[in-house]
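Margin note from the TA: students keep mixing up input and output lines. Inputs are the sequences; the output is the structure of the whole complex. Example:
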Amino acid sequence: MGRKIRILIAEEDLDFVKMVENALRESGGDYEIERVSSGEACMKKLQDERFDILLLDYSLPDGKGLDWLRKFNESHIGVPTIFVTPKGDPKLSIEVMKEGVFDYINRSAECAKAFPFVVSRAVEGYTLMVEKVKLQKELIETKNFLESIVERAGDAISVVDLEGRILYWDEGAEQIYGFKKEEAIGRNLSDFLYPREKTLREAEEKLMEEIMGRVRKGEVVPNVEVKRMTKDGKEIITSMTISPLRDAEGKMIGASRICKDITQMKKVEERLLLTERLTSLGELSAGVAHELRNPLAGIKINTQVLLRKKDLPEMERKLLESSLEGIGKIQKIVDDMLHFAKPKAAHFKEEKINEVVESSLAIFQNKLKKGNISLMVQKSEDLPNVWIDAHQIQQVLFNLMLNAIQAMEKGGSLTIRTFLGNGGGIGIEVKDTGVGIPKSHLKKIFDPFFTTKSDGTGLGLSISLKILENHDATLEVESEEGKGSSFTIHLPGRRGDAV
Amino acid sequence: MRFKILVIDDEPTLRHSLEVALKTSGYDVLTARTGEEGLERFKSDPPDLILLDHWLPGINGDEVLRRIKEEDSEIPIIIMTAQGSIEIAVNSMKLGAFDFLVKPFELDQVEDLIQKGIDRIRLKKEVEWLRTQY
């Protein structure tokens, strides 16, 4: 310690004081000593000034040292105290130690000589004690601080040991995965969080093995996207950061994992990507369509000029007619492409959705009958009016219904349902019991020109999606191979409209 | 009397096919590949009716339409477009086009329109002739 050690001595016995002072001086330390001879004076000094050490005698003119010690403690005077006891009173020594004195010395010449050591021991001990209390306080604060961050982060935070068993599972994890602490702790992650589907599961296991390999080498692996399964069987995508967890000695004992549920974000991202792709494809299509129409116009006229010849042999006539048919098909594709690239300007009006649905159904009656398909229409009454271009929404419904019918070549049932959605919006579901869409196709069905039908242009759904986007509406698809598909349109409610 | 039709289009297939088709139908046909060439043709050998592509290299169809109408406000001009948007149709009508065809059109369609245009020209000429008789 660089500064002087201030010592207050409360002692009547001047001889003993002298001995103590001599001993301190001889020790070569830097001390500043003050002396008082009564408990009262000692109390006052302690209240006014700061001392590093108090040497307190067991007996003072105005009372017992022990009583004064208790008084000091009651007044929260925190000074490391060394108590002077009479020779051969071990009971008193124990009593004062209980009161929290740092040390005690006998009133003897030998003890006076040893006093500097006692002082330095006391000073050091006291400093350490203060430091310890401070650190403990800081530790608790830090712990509370971290806990409050961790618990309220909303992210799933978990800790696993080196075997992959869960040691810690926070509220966020409970919320994201649906598993409670008691259900998760002690179990192995891969037993209940991985996707059930075999290939997905294997992919995840491989990925995690690789990541854990890196973590074991001490690496922090940030933002890995992984697929997980919640308790109610929902597939979610999380972004996970895994860091090695070490004990106080720096030995690796496991890994901490912070996971954010990014399923929603991924969906939006995908939709955005799709929109971008559709836009650029749209521009391309418009250009291509335009370029195709010009020569096609010439070919069409040529063919028609030739077909007018009266003495045309039968075979030539057939060939020309088939060419004309081909031209018709190209023309239809080109028209669809252009429509996709530049949908006709929408004319929004307030409409009753049930009427729009009803009128879209009319054209299909024949097809339904022929295809042995039963139709179920579940219209929710009291729906608010919607602000749409009825013609365009009809076109979307037409596309969805046609797809549904084509998916049910062996017959089945087509369900059209209207319902009140969240936030005052309206939902229209078109559901079939057809062949369903393979998982690998689900992402592509909105791509222009993607089709599995021999006579399809692959533009129906992309045009539909575009129209719906113009309506601020969304289209949701659910499909299971062999069971059927369901397409649900969500039209937004009119703002400030409470019809 | 044979009527003369000017076809302005940069697509050779369509230009040739219209030339053949319309000649077969009994018209005289002139062709031009660009708006500039079309304007020259129009001045050097004035036609009775014009088939004009909307999208042309160099000066575009709208501009060709405007310049021809400045010279001769009566001549029927039929706009042909590969884009087929309402906006283009409306705009062409405002500029004085006689009618509008979206490529690829039917032979019957283009013949009908030409017939209508020619009828109108004939009618106008008759009216003018009659007027001179007074």
